[in-house]
Amino acid sequence: MWLVLALCALAACRGPDAAAPAPSTQGSKVSQTLDIERHFSGPELALARAAAAGDAAEVRRLVREEHADPNAVSPGGLPLVAWPVLQGNVDGVAALLDNGADPDREVPAAGHAIVWAAKAPDPRLLQAFLDHGGKVDGSNADGEPLTMVAALAGEWDNVKLLVERGADVNATAHGMPGDTLLGHYSAGRFDKALWLLEHGADPGYTIEAAPVAERIGAQPVVENIYWWPVQAGRYPQLAQAQQRCQALLAARGFPAPAEPSHLARLRASQGSDGGQSGPPRDIDTEIRDREAELGRSLDDG
User: Fold this and answer.
1) Which long-range contacts (CB under 8 A, 24 or more apart) does 192-199 make?
2) For residue 28, with 0-12 CB atoms within 10 Å meaning exposed, 13-18 middle and 19 or more buried, which class applies?
3) Which end of the chain lies in a sparser environment, N or C, as judged by fewer CB atoms within 10 Å?
4) CA-based torsion, 59, 60, 61, 62: positive or negative
5) Which of 225, 162, 230, 166 is nearest to 193 (CA)?
6) What integer best gives the mean pLDDT of the chain?
C-alpha cells in the first residue's frame, strides 16, 4: 500500500505525458511499476542505480568524481534518495546519506524525503534517515506527522521507532485535535494503544463542537478504550490489552463513561457483545485473587 500511495503522489504532480506508470502487478519488484529512467538521466541515473544495488563504493565515486547530485529530485517529484528506499536497500540509502543526501530534503509531492522511509516496510530504512539527522517530527505534504504517515501505512515498527527517537506521541494531523496516534489505534488495536499510553499518549481529547449536541463533551479515545467491542474468545490477548488500557485510564482519572450509541450499534452489528457485557474485567487481578484463594484452601487442608 505504501508503494501505491507513493506512486499515486508522483503521478499527480507529473504532467500527463510524463506520469509514472501505475502498478500493473502485485509483485514486490518496484521496477515493474516505476521506470527510473523516466525520472533521472546521466550521473544521477547511474547514482540511483548504484544506490538501489547497495554499491556504496560506486555511490561515493559518482558523487565525488562525476558530481552526481544525491539531492536530485526528478521533475515528477521523486527524490533520488527515495529510489533505494523503494527498492528496500538499506545499504544504498545509507551510502547516499553518507555522501550528502539530505534526509529532510523538501519534496513537493511528499513534504520531505524522509516520508518515503516512514512508509517503508523495513524500519532499518527509516533508522538510516534518523541516524543521519532526519527530523522525527517532520510531516508530509498533507500536514500529517511522520508518526501518522507510518501508522496509516500500517508500519507499526516505524511508529515505535519514531516515538522512541523523540517524536511527539501526541502530534496531531491536519490541525485536528483528536487526530492523533492514540485516536487512530484506540479503535480496536489495543495492543498498540497500550504501548502508546505507556509512552505518554494523552487520552483526554474532548469534543468541543459537534453536529449532535450529545457528543459535545465526549472523550472519543476514552469511549473507545472502555467500550470498543472485542471478541475475547477469539482475541484474548487483544482483550487483555484493552483491560490494561482501561486500568491505565482509571489510574489517570478517566473512569468508564456511559456507552455511546455508535459503539452500542457497532456491538449489535457484530451479532454479539464482543465478548463483554460491559467494561471488561481485570483478569490479572482475578488471577491473583484466585491464586490467593487456592493457597488459602491448601493451607486449610
Assistant:
1) 192/156, 192/159, 193/225, 193/241, 193/245, 194/241, 194/244, 194/245, 194/248, 195/160, 196/163, 196/169, 197/245, 197/248, 197/249, 198/248, 199/163, 199/164, 199/169
2) exposed
3) C
4) positive
5) 225
6) 85
Cα atoms in the 13 Å half-sphere on the side-chain side of 54: 7
- Residue-wise pLDDT for 231-249, tens only, equals 999 999 999 999 999 999 9
Residue (of 19, 75, 18) closest to 44 by Cα position: 75
Which amino acid makes up residue 205? Answer: Y
| 27 and 150 in a common domain | yes
Looking at the chain, the whole-number percentage of residues with pLDDT higher than 90 is 72
- Dump pLDDT digits (tens) for 96-119: 999 999 999 999 878 999 999 999
Residue 90 lies in a domain: yes
Q: Which of 22-31, 248-257, 275-284 has the lowest mean pLDDT?
A: 22-31
Domain stops at, among 168, 192, 221: 168
Q: What's phi and psi for 34, nearest 5 deg? A: -140, 120
Q: How many domains does the chain have?
A: 2
Whether residue 4 is found in the same domain as residue 133: yes
pTM given for the model: 0.80
CA distance linking residue 143 with residue 136, whole number of Å: 14
Q: For residues 243 and 162, what is the distance between their CA atoms, to the nearest angstrom?
A: 26
The pLDDT value given to residue 29: 39
Determine the pLDDT at residue 33.
55
Q: Is it the case that residue 277 has pLDDT exceeding 60?
A: no
Write down the pLDDT at residue 174. 86
- Distance (Å, whole) CA 301 – CA 296: 9
